[in-house]
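Q: Joint fold for the lines below.
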Amino acid sequence: MRVLGIETSCDETAASVVALDAGGAPKILSDIVFSQIEEHAAFGGVVPEVAARAHVEALDGVIEAALADSGVDLADIDAIAATAGPGLVGGLIVGLMTAKAIAAAANKPLIAINHLEGHALTARLTDGLDFPYLLLLVSGGHTQIVAVRGVGDYQRWATTIDDALGEAFDKTAKMLGLPYPGGPNVEKAAATGDATRFAFPRPMKGSAQPDFSFSGLKTAVRQAATAIAPLSDQDVADICASFQAAVADALDDRVSRALNRFRQEFPGEMEPALVVAGGVAANRTIKTTLEALCEKAGFAFVAPPLKLCTDNAAMIAWAGIERLRAGIAGENAADFVPRSRW
Ligand code: KG4
Ligand code: ZN
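A: Joint structure:
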């Protein structure tokens, strides 16, 4: 089985061919990601209209490259899987319409994929994980804890009530004059900072409610920065380190609650796993915190390679394969309308 995946929901234009061999082993035959970061850097964030236009310009070439790299002819592709939401609607339209056109012209089935399902199933592509497992998705657009129980069977246990975690990193960076994308730059600055200098709030810590919140933390960072402006390099480093410590602490509290709940709901799981996905999972401090938490709780900690944790089309092709294999690909998605919220 070979599926062509297409991803255009945010600022990555991506295409990939993933195959399943006769023994059921997956193989990524190609994985092309064209990042638009440079186009958005000047604006300090992703601009939807700029992103949509960039997808239009890049997508044909990216798909051609993915097919060429894979060595598979379009004629030998079994299905096309395209992200149909959630995301920026301009990009979704570009990707889904292109997928519909290819599917119609080549007479192939089309599968509309939820971007979050792509993230949720990646650990099965990279690590062969069995259901059920727990997913922590921390990216620029999403902060969620999801119980992944089967293909198409997801239960969201927590979400953010305001900013996504990556967004909080990006906004903190912007306030401190660090370049976009903020996450890696905040982490870099934090390396030489004093994490105890500022006592930032640990949002939701101890709350019985499962969700995340980061806007209060962002406000605390702004107040601290304003109070001591102009900021020296050391001030910036100290704020970044203190911010990161607060985030790690908040995550520790939120995720540990979810691990407990998982134990209760799936008592038969001898070796339960926590999977992390999303760009923020690249952060060393956060990773170390979660690793320690898992070790203490007896959970396996699974972090797929970063390239497959951030936005890519291999995860979309893979979700297509999972759906085909499970017999829940749905009606041919020729009439599917992109859903910015899904
Ligand atoms: O998953 P991703 O590449 O794209 C989507 O948002 O879908 O995530 C990007 C986000 C950005 O907010 C970026 O600042 C953040 O991940 N990020 C990081 C790090 N690297 C990327 N945040 C904290 N520490 C990092 N090292
Ligand atoms: Zn994503």
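Q: Anything notable?
A: The mean pLDDT is 96. The domain at 2-124+308-335 is CATH 3.30.420.40 (Nucleotidyltransferase; domain 5).
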